[in-house]
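Human: If only I could read backbone structure tokens as easily as an amino acid sequence. Take your time, and here it is.
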Amino acid sequence: MRPCLLGLLAGVTLALGGCGMIRSIGWGDDVDVTWGLGGHRLAAAPVLPAPQNLMPQPVQTVAVPPAPLAADPRTVAIELAWKARQAGDDMTAGSLFRKVLTDQPDDKEAKLGLAATLLDSGNVEGAKPLGADLLKKDPNDPRVLALMARIDMAGGDLDMAAGRLALAMAGLPGNRDILLAHGVFQDLRGNHAAARNDYNQVLASAPDDVSARNDLALSLIAEGEAAKAIPLLEGANMTVSKPVIRRNLALAYGLEGRETEARSLLTQDMPAGDVESNIRYYRLLRSQRPRQ
């Protein structure tokens, strides 16, 4: 593992998934039909002969499909929360997961989602009790194992994380959160090519996934490819406003000598003295890079 990797990855937003409104449109205008002849006298109408050989016409009916069942509010909230996580909106995701848990305190999906969201935002201590409860109730669930592996990695226990991630990958291959957790583990071990394979699997089905973009960018930075990381982080930064994304993008800019852009990002989240300390640190990192 490279010496600077842990420091670079310390601010990773791990992957751990906008609301709309439906407007009802009804017919609100009354139609007035006036029957009457305005008081005029009419002459008697002539009696016409009855039509001959007319067959009765069948009455056409239109099948009306049954009204769709109303979506379960809990299911809607969970789906929206996971989408918010994927978009990097931790606040919305956490709020929705908590709303479900207020009504259903033992809801497994909401607990799992909230724990993952807390990890996304860097609140490891808040995620720990939720993860422990989930592991106690379902110790073989691959997603729970991946969640616990993330907590292990945050605490520096890569050996425990390795065992859990191996089981998780075998039990639920292709799962977004498991792939991203496994990718971060590979980066921490210095296996950057394997890590990027995990991230790219996620991005193949969700190109705008903020966490996958961030993790892939950090993996590239760790191998000295800051220029390739910049477009990934710029896209993530346009999708969601998060300090961790801005810091990582500032790092990539700084490593490429784009200090004005780096300084502009850093000033959004830290005092001037800290901004200049970061700029000096980027210069130091540039000076230590091998010359091409």
In short: DSSP finds 14 helices and no strands in the chain. The radius of gyration is 30 Å. Residues 272-288 form the longest helix (17 residues). Residues 1-48 have pLDDT under 50 and may be disordered.
